[in-house]
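Batch manifest, entry 17 of 40.
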Amino acid sequence: MNEKGQLYRALIDDVRKDYLSRPLVRNSKGVYLVWEEECHEINLWTYWQGLGNYDAKIMLVGQDWGFPDRSSKVMQNIREINCGLRTDYIFDQASPTDGNLCRLFSVLGYDITKRSKDLFFTNFILGYRSKGFSGNLAHEWLTADAPYFSRLVNIIEPEIIICLGKDTFKSVQYACTGKMQHIGNYNDFIESAQNPEIITLASRKKAAAFAVAHCGIIGTMNRNRADKAGNLVSSHNLDRQTEDWKRIKAYLKEKSLS
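Output type: structure tokens
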């Protein structure tokens, strides 16, 4: 195992120990975070893209996994990966959110149903909800994991960090720069010249943090709100998000030519 791999494994050990000892912080519904012992990586999402990818070019960041339902097909696949019985996380009956993510990554030229050494997936919150899958976010969850996320970014040193949703982008910004920007209308911010934010890593390398909408139903619905002319777009339409991801593609192309 190379130096990056050793740093990555040490990070996982530190996060696990912290979660097993930190006081429980409950959200407004009484939900708290726990560590998932069946996760041998920094995050369960890393099983999809990221296993051994310590030099990944693109890091995708979500907010949190939610509750890891051990009866689910995903968790069954992860257990089999842990035992060396399979290599792929994705499966035929992927969720609509996963399907949308596949469509958006195709804009960048990636088929994420297959493993790519260029990609690393993680959620910003590294623990898992005691129940439920979304909503009622406790911001203490984000600030507690910010130092660990910062360590992860400085290990991987991605060129691009794709942040799914406003809270995720603000948390990535805080973890990597120590500041948290006020963002009013997120749709306007996504389309603004402030996006991406260029972050200087510990190695002095640069990473571009892109704010994009989450590709789930709510995120897509919010991205497709009426435009300034009052035109409505279907909550299932990915056209606006596709245009957002084309900006990422253009950045990657420009960077490769520089």
